[in-house]
Design brief:
This protein is an all-alpha fold. About 65% of the residues lie in helices and about 0% in strands.
């Protein structure tokens, strides 16, 4: 009998193990028994025809690319117009500066010409314009005019190269 009991115990153990495993699986499945919202079903036979979704997506992508390229082109055109307007303003500023410099050069050249053509004023004339007294002006005029040599006195006579004459009239 002992030989028959051993297999019975083994089957009992196996049965107990199967019950435990199934009970654990049932406990896990009990969590799934709580009602949850069901996901949107995927239909095996969709309402739309084949390829229509793909064509719609391609159209959407094409429109998105076209809108992006138009926005990019508008941005480029706006940047180009800004560059043109700023270049025009810079050119106008350069032209104004060039005209101003040319006018300054002309004024300076005219001043140089007038200075070159102007007669030099004597100090006494300048003193008269500045309001100095008549005595001071006369003193300056006297100082400015050089003493004129008289025509009777020789300027400088040439020296004789021979022996010097003696100062005594009685000596030979």
């Amino acid at each position: 009998m002992t030989a028959f009991k051993k297999p019975a115990h083994r089957s009992n153990y196996l049965a107990l193990l199967v019950v435990l495993v199934c009970g654990i699986c049932g406990a896990k499945a009990d969590d799934l028994a709580i009602p949850t919202p069901t996901p949107t079903p995927a239909y095996l036979n969709p309402v739309v025809r084949r390829g229509q979704v793909r064509r719609l997506e391609q159209g959407d992508r094409r429109r998105a690319v076209q809108e992006a390229s138009q926005a990019k082109a508008a941005t480029r055109a706006q940047n180009k117009s800004h560059r043109r307007s700023s270049a025009a303003v810079e050119a106008q500023v350069r032209a104004t500066a060039r005209d101003r410099e040319q006018a300054q050069r002309q004024v300076a050249a005219e001043a140089r010409r007038e200075t070159a053509n102007a007669t030099a004023h004597s100090t006494s004339d300048l003193m008269a314009r500045m309001g100095f007294s008549a005595e001071e002006i006369e003193a300056q005029k006297a100082h400015e005019t050089p003493a004129k040599p008289s025509p009777k006195t020789p300027m400088s006579a040439p020296r004789p190269t021979g022996p010097a004459p003696s100062a005594d009239p009685n000596s030979p």
